[in-house]
From TrEMBL:
Keyword rRNA-binding attached: no
Record-annotated Glycosyltransferase subfamily 4-like N-terminal domain positions: 181-258, 392-492
Endpoints of the signal sequence: 1-22
Name of this protein: Uncharacterized protein
One Pfam entry name: Glycos_transf_1
Transmembrane segments: none
UniProt lineage: Eukaryota, Metazoa, Ecdysozoa, Nematoda, Chromadorea
Keywords: Glycosyltransferase, Signal, Transferase
Amino acid sequence: MAYSTALLLLLVTISYCNGAGATKPAEESAEDAAPSAHQGAAFGANSALASIKMLPNHLLAPLLIRKSDSAVSSPSSLDKFPGSINSASDPEDLLFSSPHLHDALTIQSSIRSPISDVDDLSPSDLPLISDNSFAKAFKPLRIAIIAPLHQSVPPKPGKYSEKNQKLITPKHEFDNDAETVAKTVNELVEGLVARGHQVTLFASPDSNTSAHLITDASYGAFRHKRVVPGIFNHAYRWMFEQVRRRADKFDILHFHTFEHLPHIDDFVAKTVTTLYDQPADGKVTEMNPLAELFPNVPIVVRDELKEQVSAHWKNVIGTINEDGSEDLTAQYEQIYAKLLAQQRKNQWENVQLKVKKADKHKLCKKSVSGQKLKILVVSSPIFDTLPPKKAGGTEIMIYALTESLVKLGHDVTLLALSGSETSAKLFEIPFKTNPWACKDNWVKCQLPVIYNQEMVKRHAHEYDIVHFHDPSNFIEFRHFLNHAVHTRHMPVDDTVFFGLFSDVPHISISEEQQRLTPIVLDLNWVGSVHNGINLNDFKFVEVPKQQQPYLAWMGRMIPDKGVDVAIKFAIEAGMKLKIAAQIVDDHKKWWMKRILPLISEKHADLIEYVGEIGPEQRNDFLGNATAFLFTPKWDEPFGLGMIEAMATGTPVIAIQRGAVGEIVIDDVNGVSFDYEDNQMIFDFINVKQLVARVSKLNRAKIRQIVEQRWSLEQMSKNYVKVYRKLLRENCL
C-alpha cells in the first residue's frame, strides 16, 4: 500500500511540474507564457490522470477503496469496488466515482488546493482542476435534500381546487409559494442526480423523483382531508428524526425547511439551509428572531435577499440566482464545495451550545419523598397564553397543574407564551401567537415551537423534572430521558410518530388510554394520573333550581362528541335537553345540516341551544340539571365534563366508552350504558329508567367522591409520585 501511494504521488508531482512549469515557444507572448496557478493546476491534474491510467489495476484498486480517517463508509459506494477492478472499467471513471477521492489520493493537496481562500471563493474560481472536473472530483457526493411536506416534489398544483382548499388546514400551505419551493427542490434534485451524485430526498409520499425517496405513506393523506396543525408537527418531527439518525451517511444535508434548526447540533457543519422569501405566506424577515439562536447554521438565500438576511444571519454561505440565467445545480455545487472546504480547513467553531446533562447524583437525592423538586412545566407553544382565554382542556390542565404544584411547595417554572400569567416563575416564549396561527401563517406558528425546543434543550439540566404536554420536543428527549416525562392528553393515534420515540417516558390520563394504545408500539408508560379540577370553581348544588327538569350537554360542537346521540336520548326520554357548546368553524356545515334543524324545527320544544358559556354560567348550567349526558362517539381518554358536572352534585349518564368505566360508578355517581351509533339502539334501552335511576342518587355523595379523587391537589400529588418514581428508577 505504501509503495502504491508513493508511486502515485510521484507521478502526480511529476505531472504537475510538467504542467505548471512548462515553457512556451518563443513566439508566444509573455502573457501566454505565464500560465496562472489555476491553469497549471488544471493541466497538471489532467497529466496526473494520464499517468494514473498507466498504473496496473492491482496498484490502483487499493487506492480507490481506502477509507480515510475522516470519511464515513458508504456500503452503496464501496460495493462498486470489491477489491479488484474490472479490466474493462476506465480508471478515470473509477477514480472520480470514489466518494473519498480527495482523502484517498490527496490530489488536491499534492497538486494545489482548488479552494485557496474560502472567504474569497466565487463561482469564477471553479472549476479549477480541468473543464467540468470540479464536479467530477467530488462525485458522487452523498447528498440529502429535505423538502417541505406542504407540497409534493414535483408540485401538483392542479390537485387542489379552490373548493377543496377550504377544507384543508393550514390553507396557506397550498399557495403559490409552496409550489415554487417544490419546483426549486425538484430541479435541484434531478440536476444533482443527472450529475451523478447520490441523492436522497426526504419529502411527502406523493413525490416522484429519480433520487432515493424516504417518506412515510401514513402522512400521505394530509392534503386530502382536514388535519390539525399538531399532525403537521408530527410529520415534520418524524422526518427530522429520520434525517438525524442517518446524518452520518451523507456528505451534505440540504434543508429547504426551517423547522429543523433545533435538531441539527450534532452535524450542523454538514448542513445547508435555504431560506425562501415567502415560506408559506411568511416573509423571510419573520424568521430573523431565530438568527441569534442559530448563528452557526449555513444559510443560502436568493441574491436580492442577501443584504437583509445577512444583517441578522451571520453565516450566509452563498446566494442563488433563480431567474434562469444560471444553472441552479451548478450554483449549489459551488456552495457545497465551499461547505466542504470549511470542514477541511477546520473553520467551524461550535458556537451552538452543547447540551448539558443533569447531575445524576442530585436527581437521585430528589427521588426521596419530602424533597422539594425543581420542576419545569413546558406548555405547548401552539396553544394560547395561560390561563387560556377560550376553552381548551389541555391548556386548562397545564395551568391548573402548575398552580397546584406551587401550592405544594415545589420550585416551579412555567415555559409558556409571552403574556401568560402564573404564580410560578415564568419562562417566556417571546412570541405572540394563538391556537389558530397555523391557519394564517406557518412561520409565525412555528417560531414559538422552535424557540420552545431550543430553550428546553439548553436549560433542561437545571431542573429535577421537565414535564412536557406536547410531543413536539420528542427529538430532543434523548438528552434528558432520565428526568423528563410527557403527559399524553389525547389518544395515541399516530402510531408512526410515537413508534419512532418509544423510549420517551409517558404518563396517561387514564388506564384505559394505555389499554387502547396499540400494543405493538410498546410505549414507555411510567404512570397514569387522572385530571383534576379546582373545586373552588364549582359550587355544590344540593337541590337543583329548575322550572322544568332538564338534561345538560356541554362540549365542542363536533361529530365525535355525539350531540346527536344526546338529542335522540332526550327525545326518547321525553325530557328537555339544554346544549351548551362552542360551534367550531370546521364543522359549521355539519351543524347547519344535521343538528340545527333538530333544534329549531322538529323538536324546538324539547331541545334548546344556549350557546357557548363561560365559567360564570357553567356552575348554574351544570348544577341545576337532573343529569349530565356524556355521549362520545370515540374512546375519550378521560372526559373532564363528567368531573365538572359531578363537582356540582349532578350525576352523569354516559355511554360506556373510553375512560367512563374509571369515572362512573353505576348507581353511585351516575349510570352508564352500551350504545352503538344506530337509531334503533334505543329500542333496547329504557332511557326513562336511566333518568329515574340517577334522579335518586345522593348528590352530596357525588360531590364527596370528586373531592377525594379529582381535586387539583390530589392530581398534583399523584404527578409528584410519578416524578419521584422516574428519578428513582433511573438511579438503579
